[in-house]
Amino acid sequence: MDIEQLMPHVEALIFASERPLTQIEMTEIMGQALETVIEAERIATCLDAIAEKYEAAYYPFHLRETGGGYQFLTKKAFHKTVLQLNGEKHIKKLSNAAMETLSIIAYKQPITKSEIEYIRGVSADYSIQKLLEKDLIVISGRNEEMVGKPLIYNTSKNFMDYLGINSPSQLPQLKDITDVQIVMPTSGQEAAPADTPGLILVNEPNELRQAS
C-alpha cells in the first residue's frame, strides 16, 4: 500500500481518537487493520504529509505533536468560536495563586512543596491540591536527598495537551514572555556619586557617613 492510500487511514485514526496517538500505536493498529506489516518510516512520512496538508489557511485545524502523540487541534484563530459550543461552564479556570504555583512547577520541575513555598513566600498546600485535582500536575516521586524525603511535583501529560506541547522543554522561554529586567545589588562604593564632596565610605557596605 502506497503513501497516498495509507494517509486516509492515519487521518481517520487521529480524528477518531480522544487522546494523542503515538506513532508506535498507529503502526500497530494499521498493521492489524490492514493485515500487513506497516513500516514505522511510512507512518512517519504520512504524518509529515498530513501536517503539511492541514497547514493550509482554509483548514480550521492542524496536526500537532502533543502529549507524547499526534492530535488534530483547532487553530488559534478559531479558539473563541469553539469555546461557545459548550459555554464558559466547561472552561477550567485557575485562581491567580494556582496559576503562580503551576508556573513555578512548569519552569522549575522537578520541585518540592517547600521549594515552591520558598519562591512564592506563602503556603502552596491548597494550590497544589487543586492542580492535582485538575490533573495539571503529578507526584513523580520523592527527593531522597532532602530531610523528610518530600514529594516531588512535575507537570502532567494533560498539562502538555492543554498547551499543545510535547515536553516541558517546549515551554516558551521566560525572556520571550516577560520584559522584567533583573537588577543586581549595588555596593556602597558603586552607589556613591562620583563627584559628591564630603562623603567617605565606612567598612560596612551600602553605608555612608559625613567626613569630619
List the helices and strands and how they pair.
Layout: H1 3-16, H2 23-34, H3 40-53, E1 61-66, E2 69-74, H4 79-83, H5 96-108, E3 111-112, H6 113-120, H7 125-133, E4 137-142, E5 151-155, H8 157-163, H9 174-177, H10 188-191, E6 199-201, E7 208-210
Antiparallel strand pairs: 1-2, 3-5, 4-5, 6-7
Helix pairs in contact: 1-3, 5-7
Element order: H for helix, E for strand: HHHEEHHEHHEEHHHEE
Q: CATH first level of the largest domain: which class?
A: Mainly Alpha
Shape: elongated
Number of strands: 7
Adjacency order of strands in the biggest sheet:
3-5-4
Kindly report the average pLDDT value.
Answer: 79
Features:
single chain; about 210 residues; alpha+beta; Arc Repressor Mutant, subunit A; 2 domains; 10 helices; disordered C terminus
What does this structure look like?
With 212 residues, this protein is α+β, with helices and mostly antiparallel strands. It has 2 domains: 79 residues, Arc Repressor Mutant, subunit A, CATH 1.10.10; 86 residues, Winged helix-like DNA-binding domain superfamily/Winged helix DNA-binding domain (Arc Repressor Mutant, subunit A), CATH 1.10.10.10. It has 10 helices and 7 strands. Strands 3-5-4 form a 3-stranded antiparallel sheet. β1 and β2 form a beta hairpin. α5 packs across α7. The radius of gyration is 26 Å and the shape is elongated. The termini are far apart. The C terminus is likely disordered.
